[in-house]
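Quick one: structure for this chain?
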Amino acid sequence: MGGDFAPQEIVAGVADAVRRHRVPVTLVGRAAAIRSCLGTVRDLPGLQIVDAPDVIGMDESPLEAFKSKKHSSLRVAADLVRAGEAHGLVSAGNSGAVMAVGKMVIGAVKGVERPGLAALIPSIDGMAVVLDAGANVDCKAKHLEQFAVMGSCYAQLLLKKEQPRVGLLSIGEEEGKGNALTKEAFDLLKKADLNFIGNVEGRDLFLGKVDVVVTDGFAGNVLLKTAEGAGEMMFHILKREFSGSLKAGMGFLLSKGVFRVLYKKVDYAEYGGAPLLGLRGGCFVCHGRSKAKAMTSAVRIAHQFLEERIPERIQHHMRDGSLLDKFSFDWRS
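Got it. Here's what it folds into:
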């Protein structure tokens, strides 16, 4: 029931994921509204509905909503995960509320004080993980250290990096640059069992110089939204320039395949959502503007994430530093 285009686009995207990728999904929300959106595919095998009459608005206080709306779609979905009736939840709703139910209902793994939102951002030679991307606006240095450990583990699994390069987002590369938080976090990360390359600047992320960027949720969310806006601006300018003349239009037709590949790489709908790392179950936060395509991607990736037991692997890694057996998780499928 969350997101700018709920429930119609959410339901359409989920139904597509069930149909195309054979992912079993339980839609949690106002049952009558969900059935209306499903229309003729309401009996789709693998798709169930659980009624939840309350909805948490995008502008509501997460903590107050968590306490007062115990029958909200988010709370009921999290209860299903806690009870073992579902393995994870996906939501395009109030991200603060998703964080609240994730930590308080699903529960954090031992050794993790603050679950972190791990977003993917494209670079010139692949992808990089940004952690935290908006779940924790105010952080302590030890939280950034935990983000670094979880992010490194996630990059090993997701990006197939044996020794992911971990960087601390700051205003300069030199040791000693930054605010009090980054300076204290730098000292902790130097001592951690990680491939820590030191401070990095925002441009280093896009130039492929780092695999995991660690920061607080405030700066991480600004970085993520800025990257999205820059990508949209670039394609808007290209579209305008290519439509300016016949010659430019012919140039576009000749290079259409290249631009299709580029657009696919920067389109957030291809990745769907970002996982909250450090929880005992799966929990994916989707963009509030998510439409059907983004939700289909989010459900598919969440299913892969859970089939590969990544929450358990991170828990094991936090305990003894190993990743267990081999993996085949691939966000590009």
